[in-house]
Amino acid sequence: MTEINLEDFTEFSKIKDIWSDCFHDHNALKEFLNNVVMNVDYGNGYGKMLPDFSDIYVLVSKKDFPFEKLTSNQKISIDLSAAKKNYILGYIWLCPWVLKNEGCIPYHFINFIDSRISGLNISKYMIEKYEEEEEAEEERYLFPFEVLSGAEYYWKKYFMEVYEIKNKTDLSQMISEYKFKKNDIRWEELMTAFEM
Fold it and tell me: What pTM did the predictor assign?
């Protein structure tokens, strides 16, 4: 797979903050709106994200993003003919609530996350950028609210790499340590993935 340093070629922020100027190609935003947000064939399409559209976090390509370095094995779901720059490479749609633990560290939750180019670890990169965001006044963590069927192995790999979770017992212990209640998370599919 191709190595592209996302730090050098992308910017990460909310939609409203990135496209608030005339320097970004608004055609790329329209491409995302048409091909993801409103696309009935897309997993979270049908306009479900529209009420939160401005506040969706996106990873956007800069003008010099090296699309030509992508290999034929890398799946890309972006219509590159729709704009000249500023394509949305991935996005995070957050849940509207935040939980705080006893130490007052906020836990934020992902309603839906997706990358539009495979093999670049875009989703993991976006989570790291969100957790480290300079505007954040305090330490914070980002977790999936619900692990859907089909995404359980991605999250299993993520939890193994980031939190060193090796099995179902480790995951149960983490849930207990973070004091997540049954209504806080829906990780049944993830639990099942750790059983295998």
Answer: 0.91
Per-residue pLDDT of 26-71, as tens digits, reads 999 999 999 999 987 766 667 889 889 999 999 999 999 999 999 9
Relative to beta strand 10-14, strand 57-61 is: antiparallel
For residue range 104-121, list pLDDT tens digits in order: 788 999 999 999 999 999
What does the domain layout of the chain look like in residue ranges?
A: 6-145, 147-196
Fold of 6-145: Aminopeptidase (3.40.630)
Q: Which residues, at least 6 apart from 53, have a Cβ–Cβ distance to it below 8 Å?
A: 15, 33, 37
Pick the closest to residue 93 from 141, 62, 48 (CA basis): 48
